[in-house]
Amino acid sequence: MGKFFGNDAAMQQLGMYYDSAQSQWTPIFIIAVWPHWIWKTSFLRSFAEEKLWLYSKTDFLWIRDCSKYLWKQHILPVEMPKTSARMIDIVDEWIVYENKWVREINDWLQYSSIWGKKIVLIENMERMNGSSMNAFLKTCEEPLKWRYIFATLDHVSSVLPTIISRAMVIKFSPLSDSEMEEYLKNNEIVFPDNHKDIIIKLAMWKPWILKTLSNIFWDNSDLFGKIRELFWLMQNKGNLNKKLNLFKEVQDCWLYDVFLDALIKDYVEQWRSELADEWIKVKKMPLNNVSIDNALWYWILALEG
Fold first, then answer.
1. Is the dihedral of CA 132, 134, 137, 142 positive or negative?
2. CB 3.0–4.6 Å: which of 5, 6, 33, 161 could bond 183 by disulfide?
3. Could you give the 3-state DSSP secondary structure of residue 209?
4. Contact, 189 vs 210, CB < 8 A?
5. pLDDT for 217-258, tens place per residue?
6. 124 three-state secondary structure
7. Sheet containing 28-33, strands listed edge to edge, beginning at the edge strand earlier in sequence
8. Residues 250 and 256: beta-carbon distance below 8 Å
């Protein structure tokens, strides 16, 4: 698993937890915590597939977060609502994902496995509502032996304390400057000097974002000049049409959340906490099934009005 940079202590901690549980034939429940784009899911998935080896096709269940493909939060309910799509297109991977719900996850863990071990990975566990968490709690409390539950989470406050109390929490973190330089070098990622600063500003030392930005750059090299302009425009009121049009381009390139994170960080560093707080509200709105367009209209009325 040499493709992962940084967080060596967190990855070693996970390995020790797993080895200890395996030697004692006990189950394990691990939650990896930190905001998006720090390789949490990618590392846990790679770890699970490595441990299950040939049996990863049958005994590994990855509960994906398909929010960006649905254009709204991908809720993880107790039962599948009639209005939810059973199959979800993962367009950038050319696959169709079969939607799951909590009761189905619980049942899957109870079924026998070919090799004896089973691993489930729940991406962004905060997608569960209160009922879902309570339904999943019994599985956390009384799992069968050789059942390994991995989950990712932005913050421990996003789920019930009773769930956190039953898990081993491992904290991940952004890469350091030296680790990011190593990542750039080893992955042969090169940006033109005139765009490197804005790209690193957007990435905020998160490797997956940097890799994504690299792919976007070669498809749309003009985009980052426009993002630079949008950062500049956001320092003052006015130019609404220009701002909205640039936001639309950012949204179309899947960079809406990435840009807002960098913008909020900008305001915090400028000691403009009132703006940072308002933009945090704007960022959270799509998670409550408010459209991005309506979230931006809130910005116009609340911040530009």
1. negative
2. 5
3. helix
4. yes
5. 777 778 888 888 988 888 888 888 888 888 888 888 778 888
6. coil
7. 60-63, 118-122, 147-153, 28-33, 168-171
8. yes
Strand partners, 29: 149
**All domains of the chain in start order, with CATH:** 8-171 (3.40.50.300), 177-303 (no CATH)
Distance CA 123, CA 197 (A): 31
pLDDT tens column, 133-151:
999 998 888 777 888 999 9
Q: What sign for the dihedral angle of Cα 294, 133, 91, 174? A: positive
- Global confidence as pTM: 0.68
How long a stretch of residues is the chain?
305
The conformational region for residue 159 under phi > 0 = left, psi -120 to 50 = alpha, else beta, is beta
